Amino acid sequence: METTSISFSSEVKAELCALPLGDKAGALAECYGILLYSNTFTTREIRMVTGNRALMQRLPRLFKKAFGLEFDQVTGGEDNKKGIFRITTPEKIRRIFEAFGADGDCTPVLHINLAALEEPGARVAFLRGAFLAGGSVTDPEKRFHCELVTSHYNVSRECYSLLLELGFTPRETKRGGNSVIYFKQADAMAELLTTLGASNGGMQVVSAKIEKSMSNSVNRKLNCDFANADKVVAAAQEQLNAIKKVDREIGLSELPEGLQQAAFLRIANPDMSLADLALLSDPPVTKSCLNHRLKRLVSMAETIC
């Protein structure tokens, strides 16, 4: 049977949609975020389009809680089709606009009326709604990226300021006529998701960061070990070549006892590190001492014509 994979962004939104609706003020604030980041929010039509099934189930209950009204038309939502939620009744639209301090008879330039978000927790609820309607977050196993997208420049700028008020430091950009607020730091993403109510999503971001950090640390250590191993091999080969030259031109038996022993140890253990080679000396010598002896052999070979 064919299965459809669920994106990390969808999982986070499902977690947020599983949260209780809370009181009317919280429901109003969340609706406000959804509306300002939705497809259409004018005095002639309100239209929201979403492919997230959890949000499809939450929207009717949320609007009933906030405004005491139902959508005029709901289509799609089956067979992986996107759900479309529309309100066209003038009286309903007027009631929604007036709930946020706007004139319901003429479409204003959309912006965030902070006076409508004075209740405790309202600003977080607003951001949760904004994320549900216009947000996305990349699978942290792949990369760290979280964003909020809207076609309303003023809304995006004011949402940016709202995030700053709450202690976040997002970035801004423009993309195809849309205004984008985004995060690329794992810690900021995790904190944002947790603040919005998706603690499981936040934990997954933190876990992915730790896993990537550990992986990078291991890779750096392995690269360092490989580099050191290459240096050991190259130094040992230089010493062996020098010893062969000294043996051929002078004879190892003609060398002082310490140099003889160092030469024979290197010949017998061509891949061994200096530290291990020093322990095999009889009597044992320090790594520094053995290194000095081998360097003398190399220097001696260099002086032989």
Model description:
With 305 residues, this protein is α+β, with helices and mostly antiparallel strands. Helices cover 56% and strands 11% of the residues. The chain is built from 11 helices and 8 strands. Strands 1-2-4-3 form a 4-stranded antiparallel beta sheet. Strand 1 (40-41) and strand 2 form a beta hairpin. Helix 2 runs parallel beside helix 5 (122-134), helix 8 crosses helix 11 (287-303) and helix 10 packs across helix 11. The termini are far apart.
List its salient traits:
305 residues; alpha+beta; four-stranded antiparallel beta sheet; 8 strands
Distance from N terminus to C terminus (CA atoms, Å) equals 79 Å
Residue windows where pLDDT falls under 50 for at least 5 positions? none
Order the strands across the largest sheet as they lie in space.
1-2-4-3
Taking all Cα atoms into account, the compactness measure Rg is: 35 Å
Number of helices: 11
What string, H for helix and E for strand, traces the elements in order?
HHEEHEEHHEEHEEHHHHH
Q: What's the mean pLDDT score?
A: 87
Shape: rod-shaped
Which range best describes the helical content: under 10%, 10-25%, 25-40%, 40-55%, 55-70% or over 70%?
55-70%
Query: Quick one: biggest sheet?
Result: 4 strands, antiparallel
Indicate the multimeric state.
single chain
Q: How many strands in all? A: 8
Which structural class should the secondary elements be placed in? alpha+beta
Present the secondary structure layout.
Blueprint (H helix, E strand, L loop, with lengths): L7 H10 L6 H13 L3 E2 L4 E5 L2 H15 L5 E3 L7 E5 L2 H10 L22 H13 E3 L8 E5 L2 H13 L5 E5 L2 E6 L2 H11 L2 H51 L7 H12 L5 H7 L6 H17 L2
Antiparallel strand pairs: 1-2, 2-4, 3-4, 5-6, 6-8, 7-8
